[in-house]
Structure formats: structure tokens, C-alpha cells
Amino acid sequence: MAHSLPSIAILGAGSMGGAILQGLLASGRASGVTVTNRTRAKAEALTDAAASADLESIALEVEPEGNARAAASADIVLIGVKPGMVPDLLDEIAPHLRPGARVVSLAAGVTIATFEAHLPAGAIVLRSMPNTPAVVGKAVTGLAPGSAAAPDDVATVRAVFETCGAVIEVGEEQIDALSTISGSGPAYVFLLVEELTKAAVAKGFGEADARLMAEQTFIGAAALLDATGEDPAELRRRVTSPKGTTERAVAVLQDADLAGVFGRATDAALVRAKELAAGA
């Protein structure tokens, strides 16, 4: 039986914060979670969806000091507001943090240095980069420790993110690069599904059948990869009979420099991540 997690606050339980919340509650390991949202409607929707005695959902329009109270209630404080709102929020909660509280960023492009500058000296900060499959418990989350984060702090925060997927520990200098692979990666997969669906329609299939073929092929291939643990190149070889139809199709994709396309695409994303971090 996995141990219970420390008390947790999620300040700004929007799309990503809400996804982490779903993972936490589904895991059964949350010993107490407090979340904040701007509106009463959002706060009540979370409470209704969770139906959990371990969850307190605060509406800031009802309780303007709710972020401070939520932060004071928790040993792990996840910051899920928009990046531009982060400094003011940190200033607001800094006087209320518990000794030894771990403050964890969900905000893209906001550096650990920014967090540490707005929090008390010696504050324990970690920067995370989850991705959207957190909603279904299949996230990849990059996790980078701040200057005061000990291995025990990293392990505790890692356990939070493991409730909604896999975790990769990296140095902060790798967070932007990780975002170009796992952070943006779901969009690349969805784009490939879109294009394969269009190819099916062009070959005379109806939209519904085309989508079913394309989507279930990706879902099935991913499930096979997961279930077997095999190298994807080996699984590809098993589908690719010598002198067969798949071999001919794969050759066309390789002739189109697919490797170069993915390299250039992720490089472009990395350039933009650095621009955003610089405020551009």
C-alpha cells in the first residue's frame, strides 16, 4: 500500500492544476487537498466532481484571501496560475508558507530564480513541466529542483506527479528542451492522426470510418508499445515485411526526411520557449 502524500494546495486549479488534482484524487493517496479558483462556479464544479471529504475548493471571489489560507494549509503548494500572475501570487503567499513547505511551479517559462526571489530565503522550490495527458493519468512530467531542494523534497514532489503519469528528473536547463518533446508532443501526435485521417478520406472512406482507422491505429500501437516494452524500431520492423507494402510506405516517409522535420520542429519550439522566458 502506497503511503499517503502530505497535505497539498493547488493555487489556480485550471487545466493543468485540475488535471493534477484528478490524478491525486483518483490515486486515493491525497490526505488533504485545498484548491483555489477565481469564481464560485469553478470552485463548486470541482467540489461536485470530486465529491471528496479530503478536498476543499476555495472561490477567490468569495474569499479574496483564499490563496494565503490555502498555502498555509499545505506542505506542498502547486502554483497553477498563468505565468504573468506568478510573481504577485508568490508575494501574497510568502508570509503564510509553512516551514519546510515545497513550492512547485506548473507555470511554463517562469524560472526557479524568479520563484526564489519572491519567497523567503531558503524556500524549497521545484519547477515542473507536465503535459495534457495528465487528465487521463498518462502524463510525462519533467521535474527540476531549486537550490534548496534536497533529494527527499524531490522524491516527495515526484510522488505527487506520479499519481498522474511518469516523471523525469532533469536540471532546470533541460526543462525547455523537455517541453519541446513531451510538453508539445501530444500536438504532434494529434497532427499525425489528422493527416492519416485525411489520407483515408482521400482513398474513399467516410469521415467516421477514416477517423476510426487512424485514431484506433495510434491508440493500438501505443498500447502495444506500452504492453511489450519493446524498442519502437523493433516493433516497426515486425510490421514491415521485406518487399511489402509497409516497407514501401516507410521508405516514402524516410525520403521526406521525417527525422529532420522533427528536429527542426522541436528546435523551433525551443527557440520560442527561450523567447517566452525572456518575456518576448
TrEMBL record:
Q: Which InterPro entries match?
A: 6-PGluconate_DH-like_C_sf, NAD(P)-bd_dom_sf, P5C_Rdtase_cat_N, P5CR-like_CS, P5CR_dimer, Pyrroline-COOH_reductase
Q: In which pathway does it act?
A: Amino-acid biosynthesis; L-proline biosynthesis; L-proline from L-glutamate 5-semialdehyde: step 1/1
- Known PROSITE patterns for this protein? P5CR
Q: Which residues form the Pyrroline-5-carboxylate reductase dimerisation domain?
A: 172-276
Which GO molecular function, any one, fits this protein according to its record? pyrroline-5-carboxylate reductase activity
User: Per the record, GO CC terms?
Assistant: cytoplasm
Which residues are involved in binding NADP(+)?
Answer: 11-16
PANTHER family the UniProt entry points to:
PYRROLINE-5-CARBOXYLATE REDUCTASE, PYRROLINE-5-CARBOXYLATE REDUCTASE 3
Entry similarity comment = Belongs to the pyrroline-5-carboxylate reductase family.
Q: Indicate what this protein is called per its UniProt record.
A: Pyrroline-5-carboxylate reductase
Species the sequence originates in: Microbacterium aurantiacum
